[in-house]
Amino acid sequence: MPVQLNHTIVHSRDKQEAATFLSELLDLPAPVPYGPFLTVACANGVTLDFADDHAHEFTPQHYAFLVEEAEFDAILARIRRRGLPHWADPFHRKPDEINTNDGGRGVYWDDPNGHSLEILTVPYGGWEAVLTGS
Prior knowledge:
Elements: E1 7-12, H1 15-26, E2 32-34, E3 37-41, E4 47-52, E5 62-66, H2 69-81, E6 106-110, E7 116-120, H3 127-132
Parallel strand pairs: 1-4, 5-7
Antiparallel strand pairs: 2-3, 3-4, 6-7
């Protein structure tokens, strides 16, 4: 079996708030409890396992989601409806814009814990062609 990402743990101050925030914005199934985690499943089977972490200061991470054009429009509309700040770049230098890297579209915003979230319609750097052989 080829190596595949199965899950990652997302540290948060309030796992319910963070998991619900992500699932609602991306229109994913509601979070499901699994042990000490709340899991949010993506279409490719990868789960983001949200964990409460009150004991430590955690370093914000970056999570990018590949979406289709129609999904991009719907997610961006939800971001705007909530009045969330968003940027065309991960450094927050281009507010209220989207990028058109590699011929697709992308946008960044932060979750309630400061994690950087991104949606993009085309993988950066032509990786799709490398992975699919096209």
